[in-house]
Amino acid sequence: MKLYHFPASTNSRKVRILLIEKGLEYERIDVDLTKKEQKNPEYLKIHPFGQVPALDDDGFIVYDSTIINEYLEDEYPHPPLLPNDSEGRARARLMEDFRDIYFTPHFVEIIHEVRKPETERDQKVIQNAKGIITQCFDRIERELKGRDYLAGTFSLADISFMPNIALLERLEIPVDPKYKNMRAWIERLKARPSFAESAK
């Protein structure tokens, strides 16, 4: 199994976390986004849209972090990372979709700005993105009411948020103490071995 990834990419880390949680052995192949290696003709044969991550599982290639993780859950079901019931599975997928569409893009906006020289950064873009991220905390807090994890048991949904959680402190986005459920959930996720190991 080969994982084509960029170490700093949140979506790449999302897949690394799942691979660690499943105990699967894999070869890491770095695709350096800063050098535009994702646009090389050879890599475009693997991922036609020139993005990371992509997974080659014994010749079967799958891309998009959410689809990769769904594939790995189907192909390697132990330990299970989706609830048994259809409602729980749907809840996990809804929260992963929320992370992919409404949460993560604003982290990307901030990262693009902070990579610029300080005098060239657009502070309005950064502050607006931080505001939207913070608004998302309300939804996460509600979903965690009465639950340790987003879908009840630890699942693909929680895995999807773990790379973003690692960025909150780095990007100076505090989680207000009023978000008690979310703060407890963050500590549970940070305590998982896959959180630290996936950062390597």
Walkthrough of the structure:
The mean pLDDT is 95. The protein has 200 residues and is of the alpha+beta class. Strands 2-1-3-4 form a four-stranded mixed sheet, covered by helices on one side. The chain has helices at 10-22, 41-44, 65-75, 86-114, 123-143, 156-170, 180-190, 193-197; strands spanning 2-5, 27-30, 54-57, 60-63. The chain folds into two domains: 2-75, Glutaredoxin (3-Layer(aba) Sandwich), CATH 3.40.30.10; 86-197, Up-down Bundle (Glutathione S-transferase Yfyf (Class Pi), Chain A, domain 2). Helix 1 links the parallel strand 1 (2-5) and strand 2. Helix 1 packs parallel to helix 3 (65-75), helix 1 crosses helix 6 and helix 4 packs parallel to helix 6.
